[in-house]
């Protein structure tokens, strides 16, 4: 099928390369001309495992192309995906200006009957607005509207797109469902379920999924605070909870909390939406509050251990909001860095992929190219992102290079027993600390 994709960010670009890989003819566009120039040269504007390979394959096969305008992108396309950003406004409401602009432009330039797919995360009811905009802009255009929310995780985006747990399609006409079934046939052929529902239900289900996942993380963090007071171990609590299939182990890792471009903004947008609908769901605000508390609690641990933060060197291991990405949007590491900097600490950071993005976001942060270099002379290390490479750091070397062997583990990546053996003072999250006078059980 001929597919157009508007917005070639984390979701749009992955959609482009994945659909081209599945055999469709895909054209992508973005309002950021530099991104398009980069993509045409075969370079991805961000890091995502496996993306570069699929990008070069798509370009080489001729099935994938990037064009400078929406007009050129929707030409001849039977399905057009809208994948533009939906950032938060000051009050948390989703800013849908890019969605409206894309829809108007698309309507002006569509060359035939078009299935218009909203893939961006949007408040329920956006489809109704889009339908009105498309009609207003182009009364003669034959179109069908689809909500096809994206569930990919950054860092595993290619795998999540080519092997999703489910594909969700909300639509109103047989033609729209037929088109989406054809589009995803290479996946459904492999027994990947395609769930069909109405537009509103699909839009709402995306809010519900993100809110529930964030809830699980905040629940684990609330348990971590209680475990610390009680002297219990939140990692074991999570294992025990997760052994119950009604609960499940995933997303019960206590730590610095969630970040990224989705959960924080989607939760705020959902809260505003519920209010607009005349409802009341204080749970959503509580999830966000507990998430902020996770960063504050970690900052307090550092302060408690170091006393006065002025003149202290604090090293953050991991700056990306999660492993395997260079994305630092709403990264807990940067929120923590700001709290520590505000109290006068000298904050350094190391991240395998996200150092440049972190530096661009927070100029006061000193970024290092190597974890041992970062740790040289440090008074404290704080683990902020659970990159795999941190699990295999040489603890002896790390300890020898630090001014004081103190580690605050915001992701519970280290084994408390190994930390004790190496002589660290170690503060994990929601687990008993290891101090020279007290050992973890
Ligand atoms: P992104 O910021 O990485 O990409 C958005 C892209 O849209 C940017 O390249 C931007 O230049 C482009 N854009 C903005 N306005 C445009 C316009 N008028 N015309 C053409 N291009 C335009 O954002 P993202 O992470 O890809 O997210 C996109 C949407 O998908 C959001 O609604 C997000 O909530 C949702 N989503 C994201 C993820 C994720 O993990 N990143 C997962 C699921 C859903």
What integer value in Å does the Rg equal? 24 Å
C-alpha termini separation? 59 Å
| Ligand inventory | nicotinamide-adenine-dinucleotide
Task: Indicate the multimeric state.
Answer: single chain
Tally of strands: 14
Q: Mean pLDDT across all residues, rounded?
A: 97
Helix content: 40-55%
Which word captures the global form? elongated
Which strands sit side by side, in order, in the main sheet?
A: 3-2-1-4-5-6-7-8
Number of helices: 19
Low-confidence stretches: none
Q: Which structural class fits the helix and strand makeup?
A: alpha/beta
Percent of residues in β-strands: 5-15%
Q: Let me know the largest β-sheet.
A: 8 strands, mixed
Keywords summarizing the entry:
441 residues, alpha/beta, eight-stranded mixed beta sheet, 46% helix, 14% strand, binds nicotinamide-adenine-dinucleotide
């Amino acid at each position: 099928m001929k597919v157009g994709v508007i917005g070639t960010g984390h979701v749009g670009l992955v959609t482009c390369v994945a659909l081209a890989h599945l055999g469709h003819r895909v054209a992508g566009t973005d309002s950021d001309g530099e991104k398009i120039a980069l993509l045409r040269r075969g370079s991805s504007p961000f890091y995502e495992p496996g993306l570069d390979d699929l990008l070069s394959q798509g370009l080489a096969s001729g099935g994938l192309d990037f064009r400078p305008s929406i007009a050129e992108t929707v030409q001849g396309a039977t399905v057009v995906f809208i994948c533009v950003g939906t950032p938060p406004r000051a009050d948390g409401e989703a800013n849908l200006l890019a969605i409206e602009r894309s829809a108007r432009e698309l309507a002006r330039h569509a060359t035939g009957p078009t299935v218009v797919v909203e893939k961006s995360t949007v408040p329920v009811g956006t489809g109704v607005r889009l339908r009105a905009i498309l009609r207003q802009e182009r009364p003669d255009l034959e179109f069908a509207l689809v909500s096809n929310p994206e569930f990919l995780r950054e860092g595993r985006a290619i795998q999540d797109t080519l092997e999703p747990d489910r594909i969700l399609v909300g639509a109103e006409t047989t033609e729209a469902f037929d088109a989406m079934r054809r589009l995803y046939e290479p996946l459904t052929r492999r027994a990947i379920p395609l769930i069909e529902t109405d537009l509103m239900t699909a839009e709402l289900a995306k809010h519900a999924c993100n809110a529930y996942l964030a809830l699980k993380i905040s629940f684990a963090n609330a348990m971590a605070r209680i475990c610390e007071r009680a002297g219990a171990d939140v990692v074991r609590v999570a294992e025990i909870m997760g052994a119950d299939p009604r609960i499940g182990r995933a997303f019960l890792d206590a730590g610095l909390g969630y970040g990224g471009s989705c959960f924080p903004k989607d939760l705020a947008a959902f809260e505003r939406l519920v209010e607009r609908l005349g409802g009341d769901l204080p749970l959503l605000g509580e999830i966000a509050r507990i998430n902020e508390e996770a960063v504050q609690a970690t900052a307090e641990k550092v302060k408690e251990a170091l006393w006065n933060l002025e003149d202290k060197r604090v090293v953050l291991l991991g700056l990306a909001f999660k492993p395997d990405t260079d994305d630092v949007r709403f990264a807990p590491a940067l929120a923590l860095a700001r709290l520590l900097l505000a109290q006068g600490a000298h904050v350094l950071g190391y991240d395998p992929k996200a150092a440049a993005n972190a530096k661009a976001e927070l100029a006061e942060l000193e970024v290092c190219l190597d974890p041992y270099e970062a740790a040289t002379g440090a008074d404290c290390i704080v683990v902020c992102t659970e990159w795999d490479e941190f699990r295999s750091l040489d603890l002896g070397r790390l300890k020898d290079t630090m001014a004081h062997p103190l580690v605050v583990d915001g992701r519970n990546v280290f084994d408390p027993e190994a930390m004790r053996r190496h002589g660290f003072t170690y503060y994990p999250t929601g687990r008993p600390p290891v101090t020279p006078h007290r050992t973890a059980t």
